Amino acid sequence: MEDTSNKARARRRPRAQNAPPAGEAMFLGANKKGSASEVVRRKLREDIISLKLVPGTLINENRLTEQFGVSRTPVREAIQRLAEEKLVEVVPKSGTYVGRIPLSSLPEAIIARSALEAAMVRRAAQVATGSQITTLKALLEQQQEAQIASDRNAFHYADDLFHTHITRIAGYPGIWELILQVRVQIDRYRRLTLPQEGRMQRVVEEHAAIIAGIEQGNADLAAQNMTNHLMQLRIDLETFHDLRPEYFIHDLDLKNLDPTPN
Amino acid sequence: MEDTSNKARARRRPRAQNAPPAGEAMFLGANKKGSASEVVRRKLREDIISLKLVPGTLINENRLTEQFGVSRTPVREAIQRLAEEKLVEVVPKSGTYVGRIPLSSLPEAIIARSALEAAMVRRAAQVATGSQITTLKALLEQQQEAQIASDRNAFHYADDLFHTHITRIAGYPGIWELILQVRVQIDRYRRLTLPQEGRMQRVVEEHAAIIAGIEQGNADLAAQNMTNHLMQLRIDLETFHDLRPEYFIHDLDLKNLDPTPN
DNA sequence: TATACATAACATGTATACATCTAATATAAG
DNA sequence: CTTATATTAGATGTATACATGTTATGTATA
């Protein structure tokens, strides 16, 4: 065995240095729950968005550590990602808090959402098939039933499905993700406010108008109706000051308070 | 000293349990560079966006560790945040890579950007002051000079300033952040492509049209001109297939290739 | 030569100890 | 009693060792 030197020789395995993740480690559904970091992130995010954790609440890494039965490392990684989403605020050597809602971001979020969804419905009006329009009508009926039953949860659920389906018709899933991101703070805010009288009925009517625009293949009309619809959210925002001030970052420039009158 | 028991008594200091970060640890410029994690994050992000690190490149945590002279912890936290931005891809127990550009995201990004900037310029047309419009004209001249000098860098710099200033006029800084985010993948893509002949001249003309719309206070016209301008980016995207395929995620649904004809 | 399998290097994931800074409390001074 | 200062609990920031999985490589086999 003159080749034993082979074993002694340092076997360097230079990993592919400039290769895409091509290997594609996972093929299908391999990642059921994912890493501990992912589990923590998902749960925390859910609790923050659902307002189970109210804005401004102190997040204690050690508490989460024992709560999830993992070490601080995955907890911190989850927090880093949520901080990137502005869902938590990290104050360097002091504390980590559930992200407060920046009041200044709300009018902007409404405008951005409006612009994006208007573009989506414009596209939808151009490409929607008959069955897709019928589905929209079904969702509208579902929403109306929820309104009659005064079931707010069901109403908002149907509302979500309605908007989701329009963007699905448009065929730009990435933009839908963007819309969801923009909506996060709006949705958190809305969970804090009391429902307005008669709003559900108005929403149903506005949705009907949007469907009409799509059905006529009139992109401009559909977009205009969508914009009108989403701009109704504006009025909600004038009741800021009353509610729990500690839930918000009061960075609102008052001169900007009235977003776009038309 | 009958009160020595005081010292022995466990002094629990229950930190504010439901308080906003109110204390505001830092007041002004306290965070010059920030934590090690921040330094790594900033540098990595810059290198990725500037394409100094090409898409698909293997990122080795250990290499970064010795490169920055810090431990893996801050390196990983930086990577987590960049992963949230889709600027890096982490393959669980395999490797971390510089984020490739998802081809499917490019048409969507153009549409989203167009919708957002159209909304911005619409607002700008309503509120722009004379001096703000004059500044826009100055930026346009600056851009034209760069075009004449065939200075691409200066041209793109002036281009950026032009769009930035419009959103500044509109007064929605948060939406500008959103636009920047949407633009990231587009900008990375554009750095990979060769300039098109005559494009700079056309851009200058389109910008002039946008200014005209603003100057007339004609929101619809300004928005239309902005949309036309940004939709020109569309034609660039049909040269995907040629360039380095390893830089991209080829998830493009071909039937969607033609975004919005009008 | 081509294929299947075993092995180990090397990547990321996690746990834990320590460093550092903040801020609440105790203490002293006015 | 009010204010200023010192102290220290407790939070996040960082370093490091270990766990776990992936994947290149070596080896045996057909």
Short descriptors:
262 residues; 2 domains; two-stranded parallel ribbon; homodimer; disordered N terminus; three-stranded antiparallel sheet; Four Helix Bundle (Hemerythrin (Met), subunit A); DNA-binding; disordered C terminus; 57% helix; Arc Repressor Mutant, subunit A
Placed side by side, the strands forming the largest sheet of chain A appear as 1-3-2
Query: What is the CATH T-level topology of the largest domain in chain A?
Result: Four Helix Bundle (Hemerythrin (Met), subunit A)
The protein's oligomeric status is homodimer
- Count structural domains of chain A: 2
Please, how many helices of chain A? 10
- Gyration radius from CA atoms of chain A, angstroms: 24 Å
Residue-averaged pLDDT of chain A, rounded? 85
| Gross morphology of chain A | globular
Report the sheet with the most strands of chain A, covering strand number, pairing sense and barrel closure.
3 strands, antiparallel
Largest interface (CB < 8 Å):
A-B, 59 and 60 residues
Tell me the β content of chain A.
5-15%
Tell me the series of helices and strands of chain A, N- to C-terminal.
HHEHHEEEHHHHHHE
Instruction: Name the helicity range of chain A.
Output: 55-70%
Per CATH, the superfamily of the largest domain in chain A is GntR ligand-binding domain-like
Query: Mind telling me the CATH class of the largest domain in chain A?
Result: Mainly Alpha
SS-based structural class of chain A? Answer: mainly alpha
Record field, number of beta strands of chain A: 5
| Distance N to C terminus of chain A | 88 Å
